[in-house]
Write a structure and sequence with these properties.
The chain is built from no helices and ten strands. The two termini are 20 Å apart. The chain is mainly beta and 146 residues long. Strands 1, 2, 3, 4, 5, 6, 7, 8, 9 and 10 form a ten-stranded antiparallel sheet that branches. A hairpin with a 5-residue loop joins strand 8 (100-105) and strand 9 (111-117).
Length: 146
């Protein structure tokens, strides 16, 4: 159905709601055990809106950039690269929770890469900052061709 237009181009031809069990990995190895890793998503046409919560019950030497899978790939083309809103809590002792988390959803990929840092740049040491009891919230909106 469509509102206010008469052209077929205005028709809503794709609407979907669902869940996605995200897979968590790290660029330099290690792993985490989670109590929750389910994201909710709404797909309207090519626009995908994802939100979720992850709670880590155990960590096994995670190292490097944290990677989370998305339910659909980001569309191909540099104009479709997206930034995800990431908020951490309960990080490892000595870790500054006010450091910025930067989630990057790159074109033609079904992955959010999560970097951390402060000052003028970010680093790929997200895994080293995690501990049993760490949790994070994720929100991202992006375009897909799927």
């Amino acid at each position: 159905a469509y509102l206010g237009g008469t052209a077929a181009a205005n028709a809503l031809d794709d609407y979907e709601e669902g869940t996605h069990n995200t897979t968590i990995s790290f660029s330099s190895g290690g792993s985490v055990t989670t109590q929750n890793n389910t994201f909710s998503y709404t797909k309207i046409g090519r626009c995908v809106i994802v939100s979720g919560y992850i709670y880590m019950t155990n960590v096994s030497s995670p190292s490097g950039v944290m990677k989370l899978t998305l339910p659909f790939p980001v569309a191909a083309g540099v104009q479709f690269r997206a930034s995800a809103n990431i908020k951490f809590n309960g990080l490892a002792a000595g870790t500054n929770v006010t450091e910025s988390a930067w989630g990057a959803a790159e074109q033609n990929s079904s992955i959010i890469d999560i970097y951390v840092g402060s000052g003028t740049s970010v680093s790929g040491t997200t895994g080293e900052r995690l501990a049993a009891g760490s949790d994070l919230r994720v929100s991202v909106t992006y375009m897909t061709n799927a």
